[in-house]
Amino acid sequence: MDLSVSSSLVRLAPQTGTAFVLHAGDTLRIVDFEGEQVADVALFAYNDDRDRFSPGRTIDYNERIVPQLGDVLYSTRSTPLARIVADTVGVHDLLLAPCSRVMFERRGALGHPSCHGNLSRALDVFGLGDDDVTATLNVFMDVRVEGNAVKLYPPRSRAGDYFDLRAECDLIVAVAACSSELTNNGRCKPIGYAIVQP
User: Fold this and answer.
1) Alpha-carbon Rg of the chain, whole angstroms?
2) Contacts of 33 (CB under 8 A, 6+ apart)
3) How far apart are the C-alpha atoms of 174 and 20, rounded to whole Å?
4) Contact 98, 136 (CB under 8 A)
5) What is the helix (H) or strand (E) element at residue 122, kind and residue range?
6) Mind listing the pLDDT tens digit for each residue in 95-130?
7) DSSP for 53-92?
8) How far is it, in rounded angstroms, from Cα 179 to Cα 134?
9) Could you tell me if 133 and 19 are in contact, meaning their C-beta atoms sit under 8 angstroms apart?
10) Cβ-defined contacts of 100-109 (< 8 Å, 24+)
């Protein structure tokens, strides 16, 4: 990993989220500090936040359900939002929605932190909220389709693994260190991120 990037890494505490602007040409690096930790990423076009990340369009245009190096992430209006330009793991999820308060309540866990809640709170500064967080790219998350079932496996990421997204247009980006113990092999951990300018 480039030292100039690693020295500028921001540590996002377990079960928390943040939001920021990522300008066209800038790269967002997401780093798994300890291993087996998912980061949920929500993307919105800065000039019109109604145009936001669409897993369905992304699957359709790239013709695969697991995004790969070089793939573009598309919006609901088919706008190219970002491109995957580096990836040391190669396993990420486009199928599942961010974990939510309701999801945890259905499991009997009341008051549990959630990615949906953390992303929504972080995006409040941009005038976005609960109803706007509908889909995320789940970095390092290992979800497999087996027959007609969706199965969750521990992330394959190890300490120091990273994933880079280059913005294709100005973006509003929110990142959460996933709040689900089940998703992160039993323990929620921090996630790192850095914005790298060209």
Assistant:
1) 15
2) 11, 159, 160, 189, 190, 191, 192
3) 7
4) yes
5) helix 115-123
6) 999 999 999 999 888 989 999 999 999 999 999 999
7) B-HHHHHHHHT-SS--TTPEEEBTT--EEEEEEEESS---
8) 16
9) no
10) 104/180
Provide the residue range defining the domain that includes 175.
3-196
Residues in the chain predicted with pLDDT less than 70, given as ranges, are 1-7
In sequence order, the β-bridge partners of residue 43 are 173
CB neighbourhood size of 60 (10 A): 12
The amino acid occupying position 151 is K
Q: Are 156 and 91 in contact (CB under 8 A)?
A: yes
Domain count, the chain: 1
What's the CA gap between 49 and 84, in Å, rounded? 21
pLDDT of residue 109: 85
Strand order in the sheet with 191-196: 10-12, 191-196, 27-31, 162-167, 80-87, 72-74
